[in-house]
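Title: Prediction job returns without error message
Component: structure pipeline
Severity: low
Priority: P3
Assignee: unassigned

Description:
Job completed but the reporter wants confirmation the result is attached to the right record. Sequence as submitted:
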Amino acid sequence: MKIPADRSDGERRRRLLEAEQRALSLLDAIEAQGLIAPGRSEKEVEGDIYDLASRRFGVDRHWHKRIVRAGRNTLAIAAEDPPVVTIADNDLVFLDLGPVFGEWEADVGRTYVMGADPDRRRLVRDLETEFETVRRRFLNDPNITGAELYAFACTSARSAGWLFGGKIAGHLVGEHPHALWPGETRLGHIRPENTTRMRDPDAFGRERHWILEIHLVAPDGEFGGFYERLMLPD
């Protein structure tokens, strides 16, 4: 494949942040239009998100499938395709979006509460708290490996009263398509099999940029939630 054009680490970081901000604006627009509501199927919401992203944000590519999960489907990981369900009054619903803006990938996830159940509301609050806890662990250890950060995410989730539901806790992101860059796929994931330093440069000798995924699941296996963003210094 063609090696991406030579850019400074600062420029690449800036462009990825810009892409993320646009993806977060897409999430805000989804909320403002009330697309996530009881009585709507996951498929209906997904279709409306596609139309909104194209019409208002000029998105014609998504580097991974658009994921809408409700109810018990919030326990499923991205690689799974559970049967489509309709959002119920007391459900949690999460979105996992991977829009491409120009040549830059974004990857954002957010969870919504349909009712007033205190446990579900606590999970949504804890998602961002856990994201920040794991991000700080990454920032404070320049030698941390993908396996070590994954293990920390699992331990931290248990300490907060939840289970960690993901098979991975994140992955690389960059110019599209980062999935075709040289190197072993597992080394681009925050997972138990990745024993390499996350700060090591990529196959082109550049700084690597990571998405952190927090997937929390209730201990009784009734519901889960998801949150993801770039994992960068303040």
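Comment from assignee: result matches the submitted record. The CA atoms of residues 81 and 171 lie 20 Å apart.
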